Amino acid sequence: MDNGAEVFAKLPNPNAGPAHFTVASEVATRELVVELENTLTTVTFDRQGCIYFKDDLSALIGEAKGIHTHSAGALERYSIGPLTSNELWSGTKRNMDLDRGPWKDPREYAEALGRNEMALVESHAVPRMNYYRSSQTKELPEDGIALLKKYIDVAPYLVLSPTDGSGYANVLWHPDLHLDNIFVDPNTYQITRIVDWQSACVAPLFYQSGVPKLCKKDGHVREGWVVPRRPEDFESLSESE
């Protein structure tokens, strides 16, 4: 702008999920991250779901409770509501009565993932050819339901218990941390902003944690306890090299 201020705007995209939920959650999540002024994994929450402003969530679903964190106290401006991930809203799922949260218990969260898929199969699945399985017989919806029932049966055993420490904690996690979403000052090399918080949610750390795309190595990974070493001429290499 003429006064030196920068304006960063993002337009809702149908591919991202339900516009009203997705935009409301992303804006609230960004402000919450700034307000906490801390690394995401040091602040834990008492529920699982996406973050909203309490007023926005009340307008969307008619109910909103303040957030209570286990390390930053009460955050009365915010609330935790339904997940906004496209997997729960795309296509025919948009009009289905699915359990999108929020949840108080990691076990409920894990089981809801399976029950939602089961509801989709029961309502919309049709027999289809799956050539990875058979070139002669079709894959039936009943096959998928049987598999999902097995998942729901074992889901309680996949969830950590409160005695398992930090892995059980509910944390906020960036869902798509790659280099295009991180802005760096070319002069100071300091990170100035992280974008693309849509569909970011609070969930158990054991479910959220993973290696960000920006840290993943392309190509073959060396096996064994081999510590990588810099080449002998490292100090003389140019920036491009």
UniProtKB/TrEMBL annotation:
GO cellular component: mitochondrion
Signal peptide: none
Residues covered by the Aminoglycoside phosphotransferase domain: 151-207
Pfam families reported in the protein's UniProt record: APH
Record's protein name: Aminoglycoside phosphotransferase domain-containing protein
Organism annotation: Penicillium freii
